[in-house]
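Reopening closed ticket. The problem is back. First fold of the pair:
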Amino acid sequence: MTSRLGWIAFNTFREAVRDRVLYNLIFFALIMVGAAVLFGQISIGIERIVLVNLGLTAVSIFGIIIAIFIGIGLVSKEIEKRTLYTVLSRPVRRWEFIVGKFLGLAGTLVVNTLFMALGFFAALLYVVHRFTSADASLLVALYFIVLEFFIITSLALLFSSFSSPILSAVLTFAFFVIGTFAGELRTFATLVPGITRWVSIGFSYLVPNFAALNVITPVAHGEAVAGRLIMLNTVYALLYAGTAICGAILIFERRNLK
């Protein structure tokens, strides 16, 4: 089983790396980091704050775009090319296919984040000329961004297991936007009466709470991230992603591929 998962994950990683969209997005992310350096130099006295905000936001946005646009095609592309039938004709179970695809894209996103993070830290060193102990919080912010990618990837796989690529992209992006403002949605729910209130509250807990994973602004101001928050966010992200993957497996197991 481990070898089968590794084989599927490696092939997914290789296909994602070969995708031109991937290189374009990484290129634009590095441009954003370069723009952050420019704005940082213009903003006298707040160079680090501007650079950290723009740089980490660029890493997050472009990584999410990669997760959505590659994630929605992990299943549909295999069906269109009819390579899925070749894979499943071997001793490979459907749940192994889904998990292997998730691991492959997750690994791709981790590697991409690593390269973008290197560019970000190089830009930061160029602007501030030295690192301090407060910069350790930047690693935590990047770690939370990776957790976001895991959740987005799992959602893209979940929606692509039963819908078209376009609809999967729309649903995944909608969950990301609503999850970013989950706190505001709960506040809105307290202001409306009746069934709308309960629907809003229920939906605010259904979507992932991306706001809790966004610590870019605090770390930009040199604030440390509590160890308890790191632990809670890790457990939350893994449970949410795991639940979404389980949902994708249940749907894909019952899907008629003929």
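Second fold of the pair, where the issue appears:
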Amino acid sequence: MLTRVQSLRGRSARCIFAAIFCAGGFLWSAGAAAHDALGDQIAALTREIAADPDNARLYLRRGELHRLDRELPAALADYSRARRLDPGLAAVDLGAGRAFLEANRPAEAKSSLERFVRARPDDARGRLELARALVGLGSRSAADAHYARAIALAPDLRPDVYFERAKSLRAAGRLSAAIQALDEGIARLGPLASLEELALEVELARKNYDGALARLDRIFPPTARQETRLARRGEILVAAGKRIEARETFRQAQRLIEALPSRLRQTRAIQRLEGRVRSSLESLRVAGPEREKTDAKS
């Protein structure tokens, strides 16, 4: 990863740039400074291309810079030129596929990325980008096979890859598979809140309320403040039909909120939470004692 590249002048700078490209991408700060830095690099590469116009790799590198600078037509033109000069340069198809995805053109991305995967079947980047293109086309089952292969090839991928895969599976109605994918990420990367939160949502969607409650307890450990956990626990209990237990849980949450210092109670987040708790208690009150008796018997 790279936050700033000062220049591309000279042989050593070109080697650094090539190494960064092969590592899989760049990290740029937002704003005019980043844009200007990219512009300087593009200008430097343009001068190199003028001196060596048949060098496909120079066009590939400039195409990557144009893509990072959100100049997608210019990026695609450079990728096309690089491909004509060197049809065997597989990285062109990866770059073009990414550019098409960023332009919301998944069908064209799919074609480019399929060529890349055929040439580099064990490259996790190509599998991941192809999965994203297939999701964009609604081909979620085919996408999942590529997500799974990308994770197998590079198990230390970022948490959002596991998150993406699980969301795609959930959208396809494959809830058990979504839970399995999230648990795989949690096992490899640790109990990350983002993955546990999505797993909780999926457990609720498949009406596994005990599973949802267990996830909730992992998201909010005993050392954390508990008012939010209790409010969410109450909502899960309502969904599970345990209204008496839910009412007591909401009351516990309300007591904790009321005990907070004034400066905290006046924050927008706590005020919203307090409103949720009061609304839930009112809904349970309106349901009446007869409903609670029924719940107690069940």
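Update: turned out to be a display glitch only; the data is intact. The longest helix spans residues 268-297. The two ends are 57 Å apart (CA to CA). Please close again.
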